[in-house]
Amino acid sequence: xxxxxxxxxxxxxxxxxxxxxxxxxxxxxxxxxxxxxxxxxxxxxxxxxxxxxxxxxxxxxxxxxxxxxxxxxxxxxxxxxxxxxxxxxxxxxxxxxxxxxxxxxxxxxxxxxxxxxxxxxxxxxxxxxxxxxxxxxxxxxxxxxxxxxxxxxxxxxxxxxxxxxxxxxxxxxxxxxxxxxxxxxxxxxxxxxxxxxxxxxxxxxxxxxxxxxxxxxxxxxxxxxxxxxxxxxxxxxxxxxxxxxxxxxxxxxxxxxxxxxxxxxxxxxxxxxxxxxxxxxxxxxxxxxxxxxxxxxxxxxxxxxxxxxxxxxxxxxxxxxxxxxxxxxxxxxxxxxxxxxxxxxxxxxxxxxxxxxxxxxxxxxxxxxxxxxxxxxxxxxxxxxxxxxxxxxxxxxxxxxxxxxxxxxxxxxxxxxxxxxxxxxxxxxxxxxxxxxxxxxxxxxxxxxxxxxxxxxxxxxxxxxxxxxxxxxxxxxxxxxxxxxxxxxxxxxxxxxxxxxxxxxxxxxxxxxxxxxxxxxxxxxxxxxxxxxxxxxxxxxxxxxxxxxxxxxxxx
Length: 556
Hints:
Low-confidence stretches: 1-18
Structural class: alpha/beta
CATH class of the largest domain: Alpha Beta
Mean pLDDT: 96
Oligomer: single chain
Number of helices: 14
């Protein structure tokens, strides 16, 4: 049987380790008509604004977001409850500085240990949470094995699966429980957290709306775990699709500066050899973070090819002050392609059945593109529909730093083009690209120029104006060649995959979309990716979104 699997992998072009592996989405859909945000005032509601759609004024679908860290499937880190050390309060400690941008990426994932507490669902009076106790964890250990460092303890009650629905049914998810109209969501009590600490479990998750039992134990339970440096997923879903042990689980999230929590994307990998490989990497702290920190005042979003075409800047919006933590809770206003982001096919392709009226200039570009590469095509593949296994795979880093400085000033604004020949040179030296690989172009641009105002212009503005050379970017020929090799995801440590020439950029994005490929942009730290690393990226699961902020790491 093993020999047959190896033969199947060989002829299909899929590595044997991943041929049997399945990606399982454990994240809630984020949309305005779902109970995606905490429902009490003054927490802001999630918003997606389709600022520009493909047509005469834009060849791209451009969205902006208003999104709070307590949205959908989300991450909590210690500063949610642990005060900063300089405040010298009873709950102060050094972990009060362990924000979402500081947690080491190895802690994001590990071996999923699914603790079945479905027998607790709705087993409490209205307005109260049934409590997960240490006895429930011990029951799991008796049935399976003892928990240990490197495990992700996941409490499965099926609460989100059952009650996360569009409004008005969605009120049952959080609002009805808070208002005393329905039983609360099952959650661990503080003693259960203390017990997990004795097992050195550092990562947890729940498919309840929060890790905090209502009405009175939310903060005690949070502090009981967070004071040990634990992090956890809230509002996971689909945990019933995971085996009790043996799968790899991870939550990836935008890297907000000084964030006490963050919106995230949780998923698991089940079957084959891949889960064990990733579990071993996380347990032994072999991880590289590839996403720069998101902070106001940094050049995180596209300023546009011309005046008036800039994207929504990344902004912190304070809405509630916590006196004890001396911290503002804040939401974020940002372009959907802020920082490390996903490029889905629908970014540059119109939905099926639409009759697009491009500007005369873009119509001319389209004629040239279709003459060279075939029909542009259509797509409704928005971020929420992109399969998770498209954005994860073997990391194949192609160093194109030699292209920096290869153009003359008279030709600016221009980006040095990454060609098919550059890719073939890499393959000749390091082996052919195969199906499932994630190609990462290493330009060094973000590492060198990602600086706060007023030194921020070198990353985007100066190259786009033609004051400096643009960053290396693949042309459409390179994209077509990569698809022929079975590559589905192309990534870069430059601001984007298009480069600084508007015509060439659009052709690159058309090539990506029409070949059902995706991009991951705005990486950093790529030079530290070792051979044999596995690339993991996921964007927030936002309905009808034509971009998607996320987090990229490599486990090795």
